[in-house]
User: Fold this.
Amino acid sequence: MTAVAASRKKPMTPQDILFNVICGVFFTLFALLCFYPFYYLFICTISDPQLVEVGQITVVPRGLTLESYAEVLKIDNLANAAMISVLRSVLGTVTSTLCSAYLAYFFTKRNMWGRKFWYRLVVATMYFSAGMIPEYLNNRALGLINTFWIYIIPGLVGVYNMILIKTSMESLPAELEESAVLDGAGYMTRFFRIVVPLQKPILATVALFLLVNHWNDFFTTQLYVTNPKNYTLQFLLYEYLNQVKNSANAVVTGNEGLTATIQTVRTTSIRLTLTAVVIIPIMLVYPFVQKFYVKGVMIGAVKG
Assistant:
């Protein structure tokens, strides 16, 4: 009887019920506050642009139309830019994650020659850089200007990401690799067959950081690329938005005033649509890595 009584759930007091209700209401409202901006963005993109401009869209879409999306799909070179962005995001994320992880793996080896010196030298690059002009000259000397590889090679190793992965790897028992060494496994074999499978949470976390950075970046294109064939989606949409704004500002007086008003309305609607086009793909990826992301962020937070 004593064991059965102990296993029974303790009845909730009125204070417990009140606390749970308050917490439920608070977190529900907080979740709605986080969700509403994305919902508002979406309903504005499918509503009448004129109603969006005057602020009559709040909870439900009105005057359903896909005019803004149709306008965006008419942008020249859109398909190629989207392909460049996808290739850059996927290839850049995979290569940078693996290179950072492999460097971190070697910095965990105490028998590495000059380990402390090289580690401190690499970490120093987080705080000191040559600057934009020397970086541009270096990339030009490497022949990366106006090529797809300007998106990949300069970011192969992220020092901050390397430190995160190194901290996680140091928590692995040394016996795992010692047994593999006895079987004749080399560094590459141990890295890919033992370390990488056990480091999925932190690798997924770093990969998510890199994926978001690659997908959202347009400044690299603006600085290093002039060939439209290598434009990314974000830079192409950024250029298109500037063209729409400039067209609206160019119309000033007379009979063109009505055209200016219409153009301004289109600018607002298209700006929201461009935002949706950019953020929706990355939002669709996040749910698949969320479970690894939460666990990976917590790695190394508790010691002992």
In short: Residues 76-298 form a domain with the MetI-like fold fold (CATH 1.10.3720.10). Confidence is low (pLDDT under 50) at residues 257-262, 300-304.
